[in-house]
## 1
Amino acid sequence: MLKTNEKQLVQLAMQCKPGQPRIRPGWKVDHKGKPFILPSIGGITLNIVVGDSAFGLAGDHIEPGVSCSANSEKPFDFPNNSLQLLSCIGNEAIIVSGDAKGEKGVVTGHHGGSEHVMIDFPKKILKQLTYDDKIMIRTNGQGLTLIDYPDIKLYNLDPDLLKKMEIKQTKNKKLKVPVTTVVPAQCMGSGIGSAHTAAGDYDIMTSDPDTVKEFKLDKLKFGDFVALLDHDNSYGRSFLKGAISIGIVVHSDCLLAGHGPGVSTLMTSSQPLIEPIINANANIANLLKIGTKR
């Protein structure tokens, strides 16, 4: 079992509520020059959850489950910036008001730009929620470290989810991490260059059909664990040969230039210390029995 500093982590309660869908008026134009008007970020998404395909939707930047904010009117300010930084993938969320009071869900991602935290609840619960309901997230995970692997950094990862990721240690001090696919460095787009990775995401560009086919990017699902090759997320999102990062797919494919399925960072190393192992079941829905696996 991986040794961590789990007992030293600080757990904080953060309150949020579902955020209304946010769509700019007028036409958007995709990377081929085609205009479109489609559903986009935010909202209580009634029919799409982790485990569903991130491709083929009549939408752009779709966020599965419930998109939450501490203050939707000031997404980049307190307290929403604290919510984004402290919420980790796998954290427990509890509805504390309304018809669905007492129901539990799981944090599955956070999306930069919209500054939303996505939470998975059963579909029957999604239909009971309103935009006035309050949700408490038991944040836990920022500051998590691997004691025996100081050169591998962790972000946005609940320690209980880490234990379920079926990570194997090798004799040469590397970690074998199950992922559904690997992503070449040249595919990483919107969000690259961010100063840190303790919130938000960055996108896998899907505008090149041959690359999409070669790496089976169109098979990605919400909640998939993926390996980003030659990308170091230690102190921001940057290209570095030999580096590798592990992330989770948090929003759908996109039509805009420079965009595609969004990935939140979970693990990263500037050295080749993480070995991705292809496993079609490497998805948070399978590990936690949520989303399509409830």
Note: The first strand starts at residue 12 and ends at 18.
## 2
Amino acid sequence: MYQEIIEGKKAIALIGLGYVGLPIALAFAKKVKVIGFDINAAKIELLKQHIDPSGEVETHEFENCNILFTHQLEDLRQANFFIVAVPTPIDSSTFPDLKPLLSASRTVGKVLKKGDYVVFESTVYPGCTEEDCIPILEQESGLKFHRDFKVGYSPERINPGDKQHTLAKITKVVSGCCAESLENIAKVYELVVEAGVYRASSIKVAEAAKVIENTQRDLNIALMNELSLIFNKLNINTFEVLEAAGTKWNFLKFTPGLVGGHCIGVDPYYLTYKAKQVGHNPQVILSGRNINDNMGKYVAQETIKKILSSGITTSHIRILLMGITFKENVKDIRNSRVVDIYHELRAYNAQVDVVDAYADSHELMHEYGFSLTKQVGKGYHAVIVAVPHKPYLDLTEEYFQDICIPNGVLIDVKGIYRNKIHSLKYWSL
């Protein structure tokens, strides 16, 4: 398979052209023939114009790429090596929502041929590829796994907004259903991953490795958040404590904050779901999830307390919420925990103006039912800087004083203005 791909006799197809799939597709397209497939026809039209709707890939990165962007199933028949990179979210009950993944498996199954390869990159629980996806590939294609086609798993490690840890510079974990498939898949990825690949012993091992990467981060941040809850009651600044503790050589550098996005706030639920299926109650992981999922509500409640403790008696509280995306310097609002702050403040009947340096107001309205404020006003009782976007880093106390009432409150979730605020009432996690 590898040899035929580099000779141009076979093509690679990327299924799903979001923040994971598109960079992979373009990286391969600079080396070999690629078909970029997405069910969103409007997105495909933008990609043909070298425009990434997510804002992650710049126009010049589309140059010198041998790629066909399409939403037509028939175009996929030209491919022989399929990489599936679709979202794997959770539903309202925090159960894995496999609908996009299973739909993508059906799509690939419809065009699968003898000798083809399918590699899944979507984050799943251990066993999902073999137990959920492969049966669909067999059913749709009429082919037999192992005998007629090969399957592998290579977890994505794309970090939105991160221009340093890119696809080429991060070691890629790969796995295959047999020794031959593992070697072919590894060689294909070595075409674009300069940092090299790690050959996992099995598909399940690769799946598990991915899901614990973010579970580990989730638990470490949960610890920091719980420390923040404790230190707030002790009137100690959490960031000052962490700075002091960080002078020890083996102290891990994590900080408190809102845990949203598609990975850290989602992946642990895939592991806990599977753990319960096999009869284990994952207490530590779920405890950490509970803490992190409630931090937005906590920030909102502390904001109201600080406003009331400033002697403000009006029933008409005005608050400016700065930053609504799930992390800094990206436009993606999906799975943003800042939204929890907004809804909790609205439950207190506060008027909340929302601004963001990157988010799209129409997308915000579609996703959450409220939009961005066109212009920052005056006379706010509190300002919450929830996401440390780059344009916010250099804002001065004078700026906040100008838009707040005289005894206003600055809520600095990530502590970016620590030791810079002297007149306003200040609070951070």
Note: The chain is about 40% helix and 15% strand.
## 3
Amino acid sequence: MLSVPQSQSTRSLIFTDALMGKAVPRAPFWFMRQAGRYLPEYRRLRQEAGSFLKLCFTPELAAEVTLQPVRRFNMDAAILFSDILVIPYALGQQLDFVEGEGPQLGPLNAATFAYDEKKLSPVFETIRRVRQQLSPETALIGFAGAPWTLACYMVQGKGDGAFESVKSIAMQDADKFDAFLDLITGATILYLSAQIDAGADTVQIFDSWAGVLPEPYFSRWIILPTQKIVQALRQLHPETPIIGFPREAGALYPKYAAETGVNGLGIGWETPLERAAHDVPKNVCLQGNLDPLLLLKGGVAMIDGAKRILETARGRPFIFNLGHGVIKETPPVHVAELSDFLRNFRW
């Protein structure tokens, strides 16, 4: 029988308490890409679905994938199983996932784009199903890609990790690019708000390609759109905390945290947590940042790395995570060992 969902205001969650700066007995934890290819049960469902998009847009299957790692490892949060590129799809851009090549997006014609929330109704149904089945003590994270990162894929049609052509196009006509980002920003606000309405306890904004932009464009195309999203969600859902993850932002992490207004800040593995803990405002909950390669390796190196991170974060709001996603070759037994260690570690 499905459990009756409770509103966040009637539940006490160690995860959201940490995000809001409240005292917690230990560091809550989850892992980016905790639901995915390293789990045999995921691979079976992926084969059953036949395509990645069908897996994302079939609520019964997507809910099952979301819940799989929490059942195994008892994380403090589940993260919605979906993809950041569903927003371009909802705006009207063709989206396919090609085996061995990744996402492929159709021609860009922003003048014809209009956000169609009905296209994403399966995502919201997935959230409702997960929230009904998830323990009341476990948080549910919704998410979206940040406008800059989505624009990179939408303009280029695929990912290459540098996006030099996108940067060139954007800088040649910055005002036109601003308008394009505003379109994506508006859709992102609507999408994340609907996720919260469906039952998400918090949302994370993934800016996977934030690190490719220098100042002043970082402020213009990373910070400003995120600031607009945060401010809008605060008006609509004042009790819902928001996490930002501007990957590889480096020295700009503190500026991002201070100016966007996020409650939590994801730190990539490439940035020493000591540096972030010193530079980022103390009221911001840090999240991170074990190197996924240490999880892949397991054993003493993994546990020692986790200890160093926890000791560094002592005394400030903190959520333990990886500094990027779980590597697909990672043995599940390593994830189990790290999860047990984290659940038993007391500050």
Note: Residues 1-10 have pLDDT under 50 and may be disordered.
## 4
Amino acid sequence: MDSARSKDQWRDKAREIDHAAASDDVLAFLTSWPPLRGVVAAYLPMVTEVDLTSLAGVGSVRLVVPRVGVDRTMTMRLYDEAELESHVFGFLQPTEHAALVEDADIDVVLLPGLLFDRSGGRLGRGRGYYDRLLGRVPDSTVRIGVTSDRAVVDVVPMEAHDERVDWIVTESGMSYSGPSFPDAALEVMQSAIDAGIAPRMQRFPDGTRTSVDAAKAVGCELGAIAKSLVFEVDGAPVLVLCSGDHRVDEEKLAALRGGSRARPASRERVLELTGYPAGGTPAVGHRVPMDVVADVSLARYRCVWSAGGTVDTVYPVALERLVAASAARWADISTRG
């Protein structure tokens, strides 16, 4: 059976499912999930879909919803109940006067779907609007499928252009739908979630131990790798977040900390303090709480890549969120090279 026909048959069956009754429970799980803040892209529901419009009243959320133009392009507009109109297909959408929000500003996408599978596969209505949106948002943007338990199945038909979600939320809660990772990476993921980041963790067989290795693996500039380095200033530990194309100036770090000498911690000391190996040290979730300094070299970037707790895992993250989650303070403590 060809994929398109298979999808059509799945859609015919899935359209019979009414998800609207799950709305209150889904909203309760979403609003209690720390990473749900910032610019959140959702949708205006059809009658059988989970209704998320009350997210507009959540103080930490700036809710945006899609508008489909006459040229069939989809843009995201700030949700305003006074600026809505009916689309020809029957659903509500923002008017052309509603404030446009750039795709690059979106922190979280909440996606509707007819069906989802436990590996993040999504079966939409067949027009590809959300697949194209997910191809345009930053790597760090979290993708969450919104549905009810009845619409989560083992496998849905997927094609090469179909985008997957990272999480699925139903009336039973929020569940991770990405690939499997070592325990250390999963621990980092949970620590990051508690701190307001939902890592889209990625694993690379060739390793990401050095900044050069990591930049090559993910295909980004060397400077966009946010190194997490443990130093000791007169014996007191401090974590430094520094751009991959800069090195920490030990004299500057010592002066910042009011000490006489700063030196890199040994591999054994890094493991003792953080619980993670050097080369995989995360920015959050350490065994021993430490002061954290973010070097200004990172400020060039909106999105950076941070270590995931092993020497072969990293994840993209909005710099603003990484600094907030790690409680870092900014300082100029590096030199180029």
Note: DSSP finds eight helices and 23 strands in the chain.
